[in-house]
Amino acid sequence: MKPLQLAKKGERGAALLTVLLLVAVIAVLAAHGIDRLAGATKLASNARELSQAKAYLIAAETIGMQSAEQIVSLSPGRTTNIGGWNGQERRFPVPGGIITAALTDGGNCFNINSLVSQNDALLSARPDGQTQFVRLMTLLDISQGEATDIAESVTDWIDSDTIPSPRGAEDEYYAQLEKPYRTANAIMVDISELRTVKGVTSAIYARIAPWLCALPTTDLSPININTLRPEQAVLLAMLSNNPDIVQSRQFLGRRTETGYGSLNDFWAEPFPANFLAPSQVQSQVKLKTRWFRLDMAVEMQSALVEERALVDAARQPARLVHRQRGDAL
């Protein structure tokens, strides 16, 4: 074979190899482009579902507020558990997903902001609130010493002054931490703020959090004796100078479905009469509910959105005063 023919065959082979390499590169680029397009499509779909889930939550909020209004209006003088609304989880199918919602009495908890009293803009320590908080924690198997330290530290966190309580902590303590910060000197918006307070470990927070709330008021915890369930007996026991969870649970278990018609009827009962509760504590017990808590979740194919909201039913129409939302994809 002549050299010229060999050269031409070599050129054709190189050209073929070049073409094959170009095809391989184009194939890789095409595959990468398709992957990116699929990813972008998935992200767009997720964003669309997340947006739809949040829209469903707004609708669920409206239904929850209307439900709170209806519960209050059905019996203006007292709020009871009749109808099984208190804490009952309901599920509602919607296009593309499902809504889970539960309405509960939002005042049956220890109001962390009741550790102080408010006079205009001044927040000052409230002994009755501190006493109840310490009782609650000891009933939850936290030592008396730890409970007292935490109660005074949380009070210092909220109150207006910068003078630490004997077992509390103010700015000077937090300024010495590895990552320094300052006290809020304001009422708490959410109980998660407790994680930043001296003495509140992760274990202690997990134990006490289910029993706490941060109402937008410094009033003592408005415990509704007509809606408080037996499993919430610790909240009744914390009002007593001689707290007893077992007797509190038994007492709530004997309550009639229609509840109490007057506070005098409640305090005349032998068990609460033994609380030896001062007048300000007696007046914190309620027959009707003002605060309602909404726990909601919307589950879509690729999105889950959860929300906890606080509803003020003292106003007509009821008003949403706080929401906390979490998104997960």
Summarize this structure as a short list of keywords or feature phrases.
329 residues; five-stranded antiparallel sheet; two-stranded parallel ribbon; 10 helices
Walk me through this protein's architecture:
This protein is of the alpha+beta class. 43% of the residues lie in helices and 17% in strands. The chain is built from 10 helices and 9 strands. The strands form 3 sheets. It has a 5-stranded antiparallel β-sheet, covered by helices on one side. Helix 2 packs across helix 3 (144-158). The chain is extended. The model has no long low-confidence stretch (mean pLDDT 89). Belongs to the GSP K family.
Give the helix/strand layout:
Blueprint: H1 3-74, E1 89-94, E2 97-105, E3 110-111, E4 116-119, E5 122-125, H2 127-139, H3 144-158, H4 171-175, H5 202-208, E6 212-213, H6 233-237, H7 245-254, H8 263-267, H9 270-273, H10 279-282, E7 291-300, E8 304-312, E9 319-328
Parallel strand pairs: 3-6
Antiparallel strand pairs: 1-2, 2-7, 4-5, 7-8, 8-9
Brief digest:
The chain contains ten helices and nine strands. By secondary structure, the protein is α+β, with helices and mostly antiparallel strands.
Q: How many helical elements?
A: 10
Shape summary? extended
User: Which strands sit side by side, in order, in the main sheet?
Assistant: 1-2-7-8-9
Q: Can you tell me the residue ranges where pLDDT is under 50 for at least 5 consecutive residues?
A: none
N- to C-terminal distance: 68 Å
Estimate the strand proportion.
15-25%
Rg (C-alpha, Å):
30 Å
SSE topology string:
HEEEEEHHHHEHHHHHEEE
- From the helix content, strand content and strand pairing, which structural class follows? alpha+beta
Largest sheet: 5 strands, antiparallel
The average pLDDT is 89
* Count of individual beta strands: 9
Helix content: 40-55%
